[in-house]
């Protein structure tokens, strides 16, 4: 395990903000980190700690006075297969889109709609990443983690992970207690074609012979055109979650805003498009201390100057939340994790 002190995290968060971690530890094998955790039993109860994959959903609001653990584990292995399904285990440190590309080219289908989401396989389970009508949790078979306090290895089934919209047991009951070692996906041997989402429908029209490879290519194209590249402009994708409101509130809003963007949920509630709400407040392109609302995609906050701090971006997020609350009486909840 490589351990660095007073380590700069600028290259480890896609907002590209400057922050220093007191200790930064990276490891390349599961055995290394398991041994470290077991020989330092009790340490993580006392020392503040954070696991950082690609840092594509994190906002550092200041320096991190604790230990950052950074997985660089890279294995992908087929656990079992038959004519219909295969179980594929991937290490937490594998780059998510490398994994999606690998599965698709090894005749293991289902993840194509999740192409090009930044981040690692480990975080895919924490975040239950989702895009274009598919969520990681739809295909996760099990998640293997180590309990940071007891050193015990534990495997959770998909059901036990309690996946919901950008949420899982890892963000709730298990928060701060675990480090994911690997995630096993159950994928289909037969192509899974899900092109119901409007952007994909527009690409393929009425075609019924679309291949998984074409879906992956289309998703990559759409994302490249729609979202700012963090290598060029710091950002963490959607900054806020799409808010869910009840029917009563929905009726009031629909009355006031006939062009309201929404999606009716199976439980009778309504999910609103957070980006539309922000746009309607006239905030596209709005700037605050070097941070800005992206001028094409209002749901994305960017480090426009390249020198905005975590506090500047937090300040901008606060303004956006207040404006949306004022105009729509709807509270936006951040998807990005503040550190
Ligand atoms: C341009 C852009 C577009 C995006 N688009 C989407 C999208 O379409 N859909 C979507 O869902 N997300 C999207 N995101 C958000 C982001 O890609 C995901 O949340 C991703 O899963 C984060 O992965 P990461 O490795 O960077 O995790 P990090 O940001 O490093 O960490 C996220 C959380 O996971 C925890 N974590 C990470 N690895 C481990 C581990 N091994 N064990 C335990 N905990 C761990 C961290 O402690 C933290 O709590 C986008 C981000 C960007 C920058």
Describe it.
With 339 residues, this protein is an alpha+beta fold. It folds into three domains: 2-71, Uridine Diphospho-n-acetylenolpyruvylglucosamine Reductase, domain 2 (2-Layer Sandwich), CATH 3.30.43.10; 76-226, Uridine Diphospho-n-acetylenolpyruvylglucosamine Reductase, domain 3 (2-Layer Sandwich), CATH 3.30.465; 234-338, UDP-N-acetylenolpyruvoylglucosamine reductase, C-terminal domain (Uridine Diphospho-n-acetylenolpyruvylglucosamine Reductase, domain 1). The protein is built from nine helices and 20 strands. The chain has helices at residues 30-39, 43-46, 96-105, 121-127, 198-204, 212-226, 247-256, 274-280, 310-328; strands at 2-8, 20-27, 49-51, 58-59, 64-71, 76-81, 85-91, 130-131, 134-135, 140-147, 153-157, 178-188, 234-238, 244-245, 262-264, 270-272, 287-288, 291-293, 300-303, 337-338. The strands form six sheets. The chain has a five-stranded antiparallel β-sheet with strand order 6-7-12-10-11, with helices on one face. A hairpin with a 2-residue loop joins strand 17 (287-288) and strand 18 (291-293). The longest helix is centred in the last third of the chain and has 19 residues, at 310-328. The model has no long low-confidence stretch (mean pLDDT 95). Bound molecules: flavin-adenine dinucleotide (FAD). The site of flavin-adenine dinucleotide has 33 residues, from strand 3, helix 4, strand 8, strand 12 and strand 13.
């Amino acid at each position: 395990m490589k351990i660095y002190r007073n380590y700069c995290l600028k290259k480890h968060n896609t907002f590209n903000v400057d922050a220093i971690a007191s200790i930064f530890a990276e490891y390349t094998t599961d055995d290394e980190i398991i041994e470290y955790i077991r020989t330092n039993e009790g340490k993580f109860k006392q020392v503040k700690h954070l696991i950082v994959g690609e840092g594509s959903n994190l906002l550092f609001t200041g320096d991190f006075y604790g230990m950052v653990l950074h997985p660089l584990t890279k294995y992908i292995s087929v656990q079992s297969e038959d004519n219909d399904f295969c179980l594929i285990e991937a290490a937490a440190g594998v780059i998510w889109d490398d994994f999606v590309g690998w599965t698709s080219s090894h005749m293991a289908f289902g993840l194509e709609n999740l192409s090009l989401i930044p981040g690692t396989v480990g975080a895919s389970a924490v975040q239950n990443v989702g895009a274009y009508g598919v969520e990681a949790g739809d295909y996760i078979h099990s998640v293997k983690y180590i309990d940071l306090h007891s050193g015990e290895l534990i495997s959770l089934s998909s059901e036990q992970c309690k996946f919901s919209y950008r949420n899982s047991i890892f963000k709730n009951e298990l928060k701060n207690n675990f480090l994911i070692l690997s995630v096993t996906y159950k994928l289909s041997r037969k192509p899974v074609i899900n092109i119901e989402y409007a952007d994909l429908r527009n690409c393929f029209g009425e075609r019924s012979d679309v291949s998984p490879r074409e879906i992956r290519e289309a998703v990559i194209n759409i994302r490249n055109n729609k979202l700012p590249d963090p290598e060029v402009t710091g950002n963490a994708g959607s900054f806020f979650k799409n808010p869910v409101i009840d029917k009563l509130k929905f009726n009031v809003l629909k009355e006031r805003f006939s062009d309201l963007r929404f999606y009716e949920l199976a439980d009778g509630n309504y999910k609103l498009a957070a980006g539309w709400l922000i746009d309607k407040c006239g905030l596209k392109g709005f700037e605050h201390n070097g941070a800005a609302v992206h001028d094409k995609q209002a749901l994305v906050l960017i480090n426009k100057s390249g020198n905005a701090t975590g506090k500047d971006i937090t300040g901008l997020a606060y303004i956006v939340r207040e404006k949306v609350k004022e105009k729509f009486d709807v509270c936006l909840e951040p998807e990005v994790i503040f550190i």
